[in-house]
Amino acid sequence: MSPAILFATNSPTYSTTLMNLCRELYPQVEAFLPGDEGAERAQLAACWAPDPALLKHYPNIQLIHSVAAGVDHIGTDLLSSGVPICRVVDDGQKVGMFEYILCGVLRVQRNFDKAAMEQASQHWQRYPMRKRADMRIGVLGLGELGGYAASQLAEFGYCVSGWARTEKSLAGVRCYNGIDGLQKLLNQSDILVNMLPLNGQTKGILNADLLSQLPEGAYLINCGRGAHLVENDLIEAVNSQHLRGALLDVFSVEPLPSSDPLWTTKDIFITPHIASDASKPEIIHQLVRNAIKLSTGEALNNQINPMLGY
Ligand code: NDP
Predict the structure, then answer these.
(1) 71 lines ligand 1 (CB under 6 A)
(2) In 3D, which of 265, 244, 269 has the Cα closest to residue 127?
(3) Regions in the chain scoring below 50 on pLDDT
(4) Domain boundaries, the chain
(5) pTM higher than 0.95, yes or no?
(6) Per-residue pLDDT at 157
(7) Does 141 contact ligand 1 (Cβ within 6 A)?
(8) Which residues contact 173 (CB under 8 A, 6 or more apart)?
(9) CA-CA distances (angstroms) from residue 7 to 33, 49, 52, 294?
(10) Which ipTM value was assigned to this complex?
(11) CA-closest residue to ligand 1 atom 18
(12) Distance between CA atoms of 116 and 143, rounded to whole angstroms?
């Protein structure tokens, strides 16, 4: 039986784009949209925020594959359905994420954030230059993306710490785990970068209590998920000048509604979920490779542990 993939993201346009690319790159693979004739043959569902009732309509689905690095959008019903879940892990995406984080770090280190504010009032102010080795960066999450970014920042000469669930050893990175480890990392982070996956343990982790453990004038970069952050706690920490500011790429509701106070909070810089993604051809290659592995019974690539949620 030839591999068959159902493209079931929450955007019909995006699903169609991926399906057409799959047909172009792999004519031997059957590619469907929900409702297409023959779609019930699909063994793999390629998903972003799929309909939780998906499996009921397509009982032949044996693998749910995120079209991204994260899997939280798949939802608890499907994550706990017992069907294997895989995700995309891509070297190009790691580089892109590192570049995004480096932009945020340099913006603070070289005071571009202050210059942007002061330009508005035509205020000329020079600040002392800070060396990379004097910038203490803490990275929450040392997985594929966070671990790569932490290592690259360390190689670049920054003073880097990282925090994960389990013990880690990364060249040039002081690694912590556990609650005590988190506190140590926070106390010594001028810039805190969130690269955690969203799950029951990490939802709301960027809250008033955590932010209060950062040094005065620290800066937050959130590239994980919007629901990691308690928005009002951040706004309070920035308005009270405990924090210098924040660079936010992800939000609980996307697109960020125009009424959201984050848009207008001074010193909060917003980007529209652009930190990094895998290219569409790479996503298709990884989906097809796993569809073939599924049909031959080989171990799947980048399978997540549904109990951990990542
Ligand atoms: P991984 O699954 O490879 O790594 C997750 C890391 O987080 C691991 O080091 C893990 O620890 C750690 N972790 C998980 N739970 C906890 C916890 N409770 N306490 C402490 N540490 C924990 O994920 P990736 O690096 O591939 O991606 C991370 C997230 O980045 C994605 O889930 C997604 O939400 C986000 N993302 C954002 C993008 C954007 O454009 N803004 C693009 C792509 C991803 P351990 O290693 O010990 O298990």
Answers:
(1) no
(2) 244
(3) none
(4) 4-90+278-296, 91-270
(5) yes
(6) 98
(7) yes
(8) 139, 142, 150, 151, 154, 160, 161, 162
(9) 5, 12, 14, 17
(10) 0.99
(11) 201
(12) 33
Domain 4-90+278-296: CATH superfamily is NAD(P)-binding Rossmann-like Domain (3.40.50.720)
For 172, the token pair is 């040039």
Q: Report which protein residue has its CA nearest ligand 1's atom 1.
A: 143
22, 63, 122, 163, 208 from 116: Cα distances, Å: 43, 47, 10, 32, 27
Q: Which residues are catalytic?
A: 225, 273
Ligand 1 probe mutation, 71, 97, 185, 196, most atoms within 8 A of CB: 196
**How many A from CA of 93 to the centre of ligand 1?**
13
Nearest-10 crossing angle of helices 112-120, 91-109: 60
Tell me, yes or no, if the two domains 4-90+278-296 and 91-270 fold the same way.
Answer: yes
Token pair belonging to 71? 């899997």
Which pLDDT score, from 0 to 100, does residue 305 have?
97
Alpha carbons 155 and 150: distance in angstroms, whole number: 9
Q: Which architecture characterizes domain 91-270 according to CATH? A: 3-Layer(aba) Sandwich (3.40)
Could you tell me if the CB of 203 is within 6 A of ligand 1?
Answer: no
Structure confidence at residue 94 (pLDDT): 98
How confident is the model at residue 64, as a pLDDT? 97
The type of residue at 195 is: M
Q: For position 1, what pLDDT does the model report?
A: 73
